[in-house]
Design a protein that fits this description.
Layout (H helix, E strand, L loop, with lengths): L8 H4 L33 E6 L14 H9 L14 H4 L2 E6 L10 H14 L3 E6 L5 H12 L3 E5 L18 H7 L9 E3 L12 E3 L1 H7 L1 H12 L3 E7 L21 H10 L4 E8 L10 H18 L2 H7 L1
Parallel strand pairs: 1-2, 1-3, 3-8, 4-5, 4-7, 5-6, 7-8
Length: about 325
């Protein structure tokens, strides 16, 4: 009897390298891009980790189901290298699915330190992280961990909202965390850029803003060039709120805003910033209860896979390995 053609790479993979071919997109464990589930970070370059938090939302909840849904959508694009890149990131990156960061939602005061410690351990092991949210607040404790290891970061932030609204008392709020991140020195706002904004905030701190009208009028190539000028060689954390996309491309999110980027524009900008010194990344705010035909989840999974290509193309990482 011949050996069965199919196998579930999430459990049976012998290596964290390589693209998996031949597995059906409709079956198998829900690991991101068919990566093996593992808590062993020996030799791992990137740990994919979900943070199923949505208690910081100010409109529609549901992003706690985002990590599971993004993983499921990624199965349909995992059979080949991301197009149109001329390399497969899994040929050079050892990537595992690290599972989810399971905090106690009933003790909100413990959430930030718990998530921070969780990612601190990943970074101490020598890996970077690709985070699947969850609402956008999850980026804040992850940045706290990253700043310990890398110092103040340049933030490349795709969003419909600035998330820099000020407050007197720090809260679990997905609209205020970058206000605190800048004031605490986790990010250098003067060397950071926000892309696609289309909501009002009259006190945006020192962030460089390429709002939605700027993107639409100048185009992806100009946006990418400006991003690279602003961040320079500084270490970069990339955070992508799926509501940066227009609701016609990403209806499955908590706070949709009309007039956003198309999926094509977002992908071309991401591809255009290849070469930045990327050290960490996340994709947040996918809320599947409001999705249509799983198009938001697919957009999220596709963008997250592109981030791995950006990470693999980082010239500073390549120099460090030689």
């Amino acid at each position: 009897m011949s050996e069965a053609r199919g196998w579930d790479n999430a459990f049976t993979a012998k290596s964290p390298f390589g693209t998996v071919k031949g597995s059906p997109s409709y079956a198998g464990a829900l690991s991101f891009m068919r990566r093996k589930y593992s808590r062993d970070l020996s030799g791992v370059d990137v740990a994919v980790a979900g943070i199923p938090l949505d208690t910081a939302t100010t409109n529609r909840p549901g992003a706690r189901f985002g990590p599971r849904t993004i993983r499921a959508a990624s199965a349909g694009i995992s059979w080949e290298r991301p197009w149109p890149w001329d390399f497969d990131p899994f040929d050079s990156l050892a990537v595992v699915d690290y599972g989810d960061c399971e905090f106690d939602p009933g003790t909100p005061d413990t959430i930030v330190p718990f998530i921070e410690d969780y990612f601190d351990r990943i970074l101490e092991a020598g890996a970077a992280s690709l985070v699947l949210g969850g609402d956008h607040f999850v980026t804040y404790p992850v940045l706290k961990a990253y700043a310990k290891h890398h110092g103040p970061l340049s933030l490349v932030h795709f969003d419909a909202h600035s998330d820099t609204w000020g407050e007197d008392q720090q809260r679990l709020d997905h609209g205020t965390m970058f206000y605190h991140a800048a004031r605490e020195g986790l990010v250098d706002d003067s060397r950071s850029v926000q892309i696609g904004l289309r909501t009002t905030n009259d006190e945006p701190l020192g962030f460089n803003i390429l709002d939605a009208r700027w993107v639409h009028s100048r185009g992806p190539e100009a946006v990418a060039a400006e991003v690279k000028r602003i961040v320079g060689d500084n270490k970069v954390y990339l955070t992508f709120d799926i509501d940066c996309l227009d609701p016609c491309y990403a209806p499955g999110t908590g706070t949709p805003v009309c007039g956003g980027l198309s999926t094509h524009q977002a992908l071309e900008i991401v591809r255009g910033i290849s070469g930045i010194n990327l050290v960490g990344m996340d994709l947040v705010e996918v809320a599947p209860a409001y999705d249509v035909g799983e198009i938001t989840a697919l957009a999220g999974a596709t963008l997250a896979a592109e981030f791995l290509c950006l990470f693999a193309a980082n010239p500073n990482r390549q120099k460090a390995k030689t």
